Structures are given as structure tokens and as C-alpha cells.
Amino acid sequence: MSSNEWNVTPAFISDDALGSINAAIEKYRNWDRFGKGDKKGTVNYITPEKRIEASKLVRTGKSISCSLHLNENGPQTGALRRNNPLHLFTQTGTDCTSPHVLKLPHGIAFTDDYITMPLQAGTQWDGLGHTFSHGTGYGGTKCYEHVDAGGDRFTGIEVLQHDIVSRGVLLDIGRMYGKMTPEGVEGVLPDGWAIKEEHLLACMAKQKVTIGKGDILIVRTGQMERYKKTGWGTYAGGPAAGMSFESLDWIHRTQIAAIATDTWGFEVIPNEFPGACQPCHQVCIPNMGLLIGEVWDLAALGADCAADGVYEFMLVASPLPITGAVGSPLNPIAIK
């Protein structure tokens, strides 16, 4: 996959499709919902009371990470100009034995390292400056004012560093509607499978959970687990199961704080409108102000929830407070 490849090719998009996308932009826009100059979007739905509610879900003290390991063997191929992390050392154990390295008192020695990576190469949040719509960002700012060479001037990811602790709910759509793969991965949706409101509601009923205002919805498709067995292939930038455009009405009216999936792009790929490019992103990020998580590793959480039948938990999912960033890696922790 080349560095210029995307999930669509330039193509004619019908007037009906454009009309549907633009109607959704107007219908689900939250620019005035949280006050003038708001920077946090739907994360505003997470209140102190919501965090107290989430804390009461902790019964066993079990904690489960939903993060993919950051290393050179990750899913990125150079597509979308994203590469896997580069991890280097400025001082190693070998350096500590060298006569040319500064010797410290009483035999103490140190190692040091650093990492170079696209902020959206692994498990990550899409910040509200990640996507523009018709030349504007969240809140109506012009795209060239919103994000410039100095970063996101309005909704940099650092504004969320204190906020993302809430009730998390896993909907294991993969186990409900998917199949066992030849590699032995349980509950995997086929690529291109669109998750609609009817699927969300049916899964909630089966799992005996509710989802409401301020919750963080986590959707397992099983795709990452399949690709970890077969090799990453086209995982980063290729076809995937994901959220249907039709699900946006439910997402908006339910007032969830955020949504995360185990796929690279959150929404179904190929997109449901031929010729379109990420229409759910266009509606959700710059208009709805919805925080979107991608590339979450849900294997351990999915297996644990299936084993004990408990699909709700306290979720701690803070981004790195990188000033002006339009996305951030993170290590989401589900506490049950």
C-alpha cells in the first residue's frame, strides 16, 4: 500500500449522497450545545456524578488494558503517511560499561530512550481538530485558523487531560453477529459489515446493559484479533466492519461521550456512499464534537466480558497532554 493510498479513489458522489451527508451535518451539529467557545465536545457529558457512578462498578479490582503495544511491528504500512513507532536508545547497558561514558558515584548507571511516531499510529483518540467539514472545524472556526503549523489552536488534545474517566460499556458485536475464522479467532465480523442501530440495540438486550448520557461505548468487531493472527496486511487503511452512517442518529440522541473500536477508522469501510470519504468522521468530529477512539486492542476485554457476563466497567482513558495535538496515543484501562 503506497503512502498516498486511501480507502476511496476520486469518484463521482451522487446528489442524494451529498444531501444525506449535509443533512446529517446540520441535524447532529453540537456547536451551540455546550456554550460559546467550547473545546471538549461530547466529553462535556462526563460529569463528576458520572465518574462517581463509574467508580461504583469496580467490584473485583481487575484492570484490563485496551492498548496495542507500540513497536516497529505495528499495523502501519506508510499509508496515510503513518509509520510504526521508532524506538531508539540514547544510552544502553553497554554504554554504561564503556570507559568513554561519564562514570557516576557508587556504581549507579542509567539508560535512556525516546520514541518517534505518528500520534495516530496505534491505540489512539482522534481529537476534535483531526477532521474538517466544508472548510470549518468544531465550533465553526476556519480550518486554517483551527490548525496551523503551531498545532490545534482551539481543541488541542491537552484540553481533555483531566476528563476521560467514565462508565465504559463494551458491545461485542463481533461475538453476536460474527463467525469463527479459519485461524480460530472467535466472533469476527466480515470486512464491510455496517453496524446499525438495530445491531446496537439487539446487542445491548443480549448483554443486558444500557447505554446513556456520558457513557463511553466500546465496539468490538474482532478485526484486530484476526489480523494479529494472519499478519497486519491492509488493517491500517483497508476494508473493515464499522459504524454505519445510519447509526449516527442513535449516537447523537443517546449523548454518549465517546466511542472506540478495534478498527483503524471507526466507520464501515468501504463507506456506504460510493465516492464518499469517511462521512461519519465528517459528521461526528467537526460537527457533533464526538471523541473517537481507534485501533483499540479489545481481545482481553472481550474475552473477560464474555467469561463473566459483565460488560460495564470504569474506564480511564486519558490522552497524552501534547499541546496542540489533533490526536493522541493512550493506554485505556477498564477496571471491573
UniProtKB/TrEMBL annotation:
Name assigned to this protein: Putative cyclase SCIF3.09c
GO biological process, one term: L-tryptophan catabolic process to kynurenine
GO molecular function: arylformamidase activity
InterPro entries noted in UniProt: KFase/CYL, KFase_sf
Residues in the signal sequence: none
Highest taxon of the lineage: Eukaryota
Family membership noted in the UniProt record: Belongs to the Cyclase 1 superfamily.
PANTHER family reported for this sequence: CYCLASE (PTHR34861:SF10), PTHR34861
